[in-house]
Specification:
Length: about 475
Amino acid sequence: MDLRGELRWLGLQARDAWRRFKVAIVVVVIFGLLFNQFAFVHMALLASVVVVVAVLMLRRFGRGLSLADLARRRWERENARGALQAWPELMLRLGLSVRGASGRLEVPAVTTYGWRGASLVLKVALPLGMERRSLALAAPALAESLSALSVAVSVAPGGAECVVQYLDPLVIPFSTAWPKSADLRAIPMGVEASGQPWSIRLGPHTLVAGSSGSGKASMIWSLLIGLAPAIHSNLIQVHGIDLKGGMELTMGRKLLMSYATDPAEAVQLLEDVVSQMKRRAGELAGKSRQHAATTNSPHVLVVIDELAALTAYLSDRQLQQRANVAIALLCSQGRAPGFTVFACLQDPRKETLPSRGLFTQTIGLRLRDALETSMVLGEGMREKGALCHQIPSSLPGVAYVVPDNGGDPIRVRAGHANDELIAQVADAFEAPHHVDITIPTPDISEEQTSPRPRRSRRTQKTGEEQ
């Protein structure tokens, strides 16, 4: 038992009791001093002390809470009380009010509240005539006034939801966990800002954008390690493309069915997958509108590190065009027959990735400016709290995610996988099949043609043929 911690907790309880029941305590003490000659007064005071101690012990040990749990609950109560007390005055100071028919000023009112990790979640009813956008624009000022890290405003039934984040659980880095049973509907990726586990669903085409060193590798390896049991059982087949000389994906090569580090091989890999997709779509036509992954008909995932090396930076324009066509086909037609693309890049401009709009799930790591944040996550996401351009370089793997259902952005962090973990997972969960990429040799047949007749020349003087 932490005696020092227990005594500190008792001291805090005594201080709280004094603040809340100061008058009653003073009255009881005066009563005891005036009538201390009566035995029943002594008994009453003693009984009161016993009851108070019993209540404290019940609160301390009755629910099996640790000192850390009690400290967290106390911290939550104090912050919630402070926010609720300051809210009406804060709305007036920020100009978030409308004048009603009676002439009185009406402000957004907190209807309910609760805690989601280290974030206070406020359900806010907006007065008639006020837009949610007005509250969203005041989010930075709200955060400053409430001594919070950030405030995010999103849509909620009957008004808005304000998420006031006081602490950042994503500051502390963590390692990617050893894979367990794989669920393609919830692949473990890391942690949300609320402290809850973060997972993604395999199916939507996913685009990860981030500056150099922002943690794109953490996203790739969190995904592949989370999928490792499904890869080993042939429930999913993964094809990898790494045009940075294979420096990223080679460590986990055993998890991949096929693997390309050369532009020509990469384009051929994409076209082979497109052909496989078309064959499966033909097989499913008239039987099912949505593929269900099995070991005999696995889901197919294409992982591409630095996508722009294929779509924009190739010196061979013909190869580049073929790559863009193949990616567009996979992203536009692949979901129903069970084909998915998971790609990373640094430059999210449309010129770099013509098929950017076909990626329905986007993840924004650290980006250069607010414009890039809007490019990756979509218009209006900055107002909802997605600030990719403000993620510090000291937090690789921290990102904002927009789910494929178009919901509000979520702040997350992917786990870090070192080389040793990647190699161990690749050895333990090796893919059952590996395929080499074969580039077809063009069939060049020499045409059997008769030699051209020699053109006759005329002399300049006589004009006769020679």
